[in-house]
Amino acid sequence: MLAALLSVVLLAILISIWHLATLPKETAAGPDDEYAKLMGKRTRKTDGFPTPLQIAEGAYRQLADPFYDRGPNDKGIAIQLGHSLARVGLGFLCAVLFAVPLGFLIGMSPLMYRALDPFIQVLKPISPLAWMPLALYTIKDSAISGVFVIFICSVWPMLINTAYGVAGVRREWLNVARTLEVKPLRKALRVILPAAAPTILTGMRISMGIAWLVIVAAEMLVGGTGIGYFVWNEWNNLNLTHVIFAIMVIGVVGMFLDFLIGRVQRLVTYVE
Amino acid sequence: MSKTYAKAAAPVFENVNFNIQKGEFVCIIGHSGCGKTTILNVLAGLDIASTGHVIMDGREVAGPSLQRGVVFQGHALMPWLSVERNIAFAIESRWPDWSRKKVRDHGQQMIDLVGLTGVEQRKPAELSGGMKQRVGIARAFAIQPKMLLLDEPFGALDALTRGTIQDELVNIVRRTQQTVFMITHDVDEAILLADRILLMSNGPRAVIAEMVINTLPADRTRHNMHHDPQFYRIRNHLVDFLVQRSRRYTTGELARPQQPLELRPGLNPDSETNVIH
Ligand SMILES: Nc1ncnc2c1ncn2[C@@H]1O[C@H](COP(=O)(O)OP(=O)(O)OP(=O)(O)O)[C@@H](O)[C@H]1O
Ligand SMILES: [Mg+2]
């Protein structure tokens, strides 16, 4: 309760500082000149850094009509978000379908673990965006390339956590399954999967976090649709109000995605 | 049989050789770490002996089987399943084609048997140590194995519950002619339950040094057995073994027998204990 109150107070302070800092009289000559120079001959008049009120106004306008579609460069925020979420969802789903079974295999077999470990160690630290040119070249479709990049960045935490969780299933539970002559598939689904589920879900949560970070960058790179493209497009329009609004939306949606997986995680978590 | 863990190390136990008759109740007693759990795991088929093998019904034990129900030392319940589901998991494994209702009814019967009625929907984490152990027992009973392997099943129970469940165990075992191999640290419990008590010397290189035949009448109960003079003779024999002889077999003061010495301390106390001392 107290924490919530403090959060509200902090928010109020932050907004007040922002408000004071962006009061019209303070947007003096200095930065504006440089800004104009930077923008060269485009000669688009900016009215400085947007004030909280302008953001609120912009946000209201966007949220009042989130589904409009006026050509490739002007779509409502919900449509852009929808594209991003679809890409993340698809890439994430592919990663689950790939990483969980493979993680099972690696976790159950120490031999496979040691054989595949060097590959994972090398592939894991590669920035997912570094795959983009290859993806664009081979797939020749920017939309699918975005999905691929999400897949690539989601796959490692899930793979590693699944393998780790499966390898760490308590011996005594496996012994119970053995004395009950449980068939391999049933053992995998009824004993190993629930035992490793909390660890696997932790991996998924990390993956989702990374995927949501990466999708913005990926869409800035390939363009077309999506919340990342929206940000880039509004920057090109020098509409900082929309940029800031989009940043907030990205934050809120990311939080919501994390909350969703956290919910599922809580469902499968058990106390020993 | 014998068991050696690390290649260079001394065997945990060696020369372990015994039979269990159908319908017989055998207890094994020995100090912590002498290898009782290891022997039980080998009997269950969960572990393999370094030398020797286990034969049941004329067939070599090649792995775990539904024929042998195990109650594990650390209850080994699945923490994500409720009491009811833990037991149902075993029942479904034993009889895959049973209907849901049949599984539930049989499970409920087992839960009632160990006195856990009313906590069916709780998770193991919400149970006391003794209750968890009882779920483990119910789970092993539920699959109606030919043989029960119990690793200190009553270790975590308070004296009262322990007595009740011991009585239950006696009832079930006598009714079903169940064959039981049980590890215990409790001398009285062994005398109450076992037809035969195996005494294991200390490790390393532990052996089953003595085999005490329980000569108390078969219908003994917790309440009457200590009125029988045999009870104290057997009890003293077992306690003497634990406090003195178990160590002396290991240090070499007493010769390690190739076959366990078969003793009936209940019948002729003086001569037999004198032989050993
Ligand atoms: N996996 C293992 N690797 C190496 N040594 C082991 C292993 N398991 C058991 N041991 C050793 O084997 C010996 C016997 O262990 P075991 O668990 O059978 O003892 P126990 O008689 O059941 O003891 P307790 O009464 O405390 O349960 C111990 O000294 C232990 O250190
Ligand atoms: Mg033990």
Molecular structure report:
- The complex is a heterodimer of chains A (272) and B (277).
- Chain A is mainly α.
- Chain A has a single domain, classed as MetI-like fold (Orthogonal Bundle), CATH 1.10.3720.10.
- Chain A is built from 11 helices and no strands.
- Chain A has helices at residues 2-21, 29-39, 52-64, 77-108, 110-123, 132-139, 142-167, 171-179, 184-222, 227-236, 240-268.
- In chain A, helix 4 (77-108) packs antiparallel against helix 5, helix 5 (110-123) packs antiparallel against helix 7 (142-167) and helix 9 (184-222) packs antiparallel against helix 11 (240-268).
- The longest helix of chain A is centred in the last third of the chain and has 39 residues, at 184-222.
- Chain A is globular and about 75 Å long.
- With 277 residues, chain B is an alpha/beta fold.
- Chain B is 38% helix and 13% strand.
- Chain B contains 8 helices and 9 strands.
- In chain B, helix 2 crosses helix 3 (100-113) and helix 3 (100-113) crosses helix 4 (129-142).
- Chain B is globular and about 60 Å long.
- At the A-B interface, helix 8 and helix 9 of A face strand 4 and helix 2 of B.
- The structure holds adenosine-5'-triphosphate and magnesium ion.
- The site of adenosine-5'-triphosphate has 12 residues of chain B, from helix 1.
